Amino acid sequence: MLERLCGRAYNLGCAAFHLLTLGFYDEALGLIRGIGELSNIMILAAEDPVAIQEWISADAKTLRSKFGPAQVRKMLEQKNSPLMYATKPWYGELSESYIHVTPQTKPNQHSGRAWVGGAFQKEGAEKVFSELATILCNMGLMTCRWFKFDDLFEELAGEIRAS
């Protein structure tokens, strides 16, 4: 199962990076939000073996009602998880700015001007690259935690804290 979750994160990460290179920043950030959801599931697995076993054996209805992104976030908040990166504000900002359409929606407006189609915008590229690197590092840390590679986890976490 961990391989499938990591495989999904890898595919989403590659697709987000590809969209970044083409100048489709909003679309890349939508995929990054999905990686955040995977990250939270992996944190839940590392911190609550009982809950993750329930998630593994849950039917579709239970997955929607008990293990949706908001519910998993709430479980991690109740545990006061220091590992969670895909917090409610982070998830909400990506959802409101790049996923959900409103009357104020302007496509790919990262440098003060909205763009239809791909166009390089320094601010958009920096945001996508920063978010992508951070969430994928978080996934790497969670993989170390899940497999109890405590020495590697501490080394990577220390390097992240230092930067």
Q: Could you outline the blueprint of secondary structure elements for this entry?
A:
Blueprint: H1 2-22, H2 25-47, H3 49-57, H4 60-66, H5 69-78, H6 88-99, H7 122-146, H8 150-162
Walk me through what this model shows.
The protein has 163 residues and is mostly helical. The chain has one domain (2-162). The protein contains 8 helices and no strands. It has helices at residues 2-22, 25-47, 49-57, 60-66, 69-78, 88-99, 122-146, 150-162. The protein starts with a helix and ends with a helix.
**Topology, number of strands:** 0
Helix content: over 70%
The low-confidence runs, each spanning 5 or more residues with pLDDT under 50, are: none
Query: Roughly what is the average pLDDT, rounded to an integer?
Result: 89
Computed CA radius of gyration, to the nearest angstrom: 17 Å
Short recap of the structure:
With 163 residues, this protein is an all-alpha fold. It has one domain (2-162).
Comma- or semicolon-separated keywords:
163 residues; mainly alpha; 0% strand
